């Protein structure tokens, strides 16, 4: 009996401490409109909730409408267990957090820590003024020169050609609006596009053939790719939920073993070590012979070469971690965007026809090349509108290093700031009819569009000195994939969205994918 009373007393003390902690934390930000934890499923579990920041932007939008609309709707607070996140979706406030008062808002460690599988890297360094971040940028930036983008454009055309070959073998007859057409409807478009961007990543990222479109099931490329995929998905989540959770940390090695992450980690790590060492030797040899670098144009070789030229600013481990981040950040985002783009074009055949006419008038049947990018005005408007309406990365996270005013609100030290990229892209103050797909809202002129890309209203790649380093890479990749697609297939979205059961929906996750998407790729007869 005495024991039960003692236990109850202990529980009461713990509950009181938690309540006091939560209340004290909430009091500091109660002047900011908002509400309690609103995200779904796992996120309601208190221990887990603290470490989860992958939010559903539609839920945030709902909260903005409910709680913050009369206050202008620029800022909304979400209070977790003892922590507060303030979401901002307005261009002026974003500028304050990212630029003018950026020194007070380093990246918030927790949500990025899952990406430190191979150690700290360009994405995860917190302080933007950190000398080390500058070193990462100096070494990584040369991987995104025009020469490399030319290589990307050429290879992306080859890669989508391989996907088309695969589809062609499975071409069938379909009946659309009473007419019989030849085409292909993938069972899971996510898989097909993921194969496509991974194939491009293998070659352009690592100079490796991942053998995705060949029948060789047991090649080295396949093993490397499968291990990478495991690390991208399960590996990141296990690190985030188990490895970083103070209560579950002890189980991290077990979880890694259980999911095969330790094996994948060792494999990718030793493969990257080998590649780095071989290429370093190659580059040193080449320089000693000719004073010039190697002909390899993949991102990894470019990183190694830039690091060699800059006298080893980064360690081999840092180069390895950056290469891993490029592959992680650069493949799912682009594949997701391409899915959304096809979805929108498949619903709007008039828009699609306009893109096709532009592509045909510029390319006249040939493959796209690097220089075509700036000529393809309408195609680029379509890509920009896709990224505005369906930003694959909905938010970035910062933390207030000290108490700072943002707009009219005082943000206490320790508050997490979410750069609400999705809701900035959907902000009615920035965009008319923000939830409609209207590519014409972007200027048909390259320079004018560039102005929009830098005015903080269109932010799918974030902004400032932590803006996505791969933004040009993905834009050139998407331009190449789409112009090839327009020459070969007409896209038809098969979902009947008047039927709620057949609607395409957003699947929240590290990137926001379309769920239940059914597309038909109808062959264009010449
Ligand atoms: C449609 C495609 C893409 C989108 C929408 C996208 C979006 C973003 C966003 C929003 C950020 C900022 C994240 C934050 O602050 O938390 C970011 C950062 C980053 N992205 Fe991308 N990305 C894309 C493609 C790529 C590609 C192709 C690469 C590399 C090949 C890449 C590499 C990176 C890296 C290294 C960072 C960290 C930069 C830093 O913190 O300084 N991304 N990306």
UniProtKB/TrEMBL annotation:
**Which cofactor is recorded for it?**
heme
Where would you find the membrane-spanning parts of this chain? Answer: 6-24
Key words of the record: Heme, Iron, Membrane, Metal-binding, Monooxygenase, Oxidoreductase, Transmembrane, Transmembrane helix
Q: Which InterPro entries does the record match to this protein?
A: Cyt_P450 (IPR001128), Cyt_P450_CS (IPR017972), Cyt_P450_E_grp-I (IPR002401), Cyt_P450_sf (IPR036396), Insect_CytP450_Detox (IPR050476)
- Matches recorded under Gene3D superfamilies: Cytochrome P450
Entry superkingdom: Eukaryota
Signal sequence extent: none
Query: Coiled-coil stretches, from where to where?
Result: none
Q: Which GO terms describe its molecular function?
A: heme binding; iron ion binding; monooxygenase activity; oxidoreductase activity, acting on paired donors, with incorporation or reduction of molecular oxygen
**Positions annotated to bind heme:** 468
Q: Which Pfam families match?
A: p450 (PF00067)
The family classification in the record reads: Belongs to the cytochrome P450 family.
Protein's UniProt name = Predicted protein
What is the source species? Naegleria gruberi
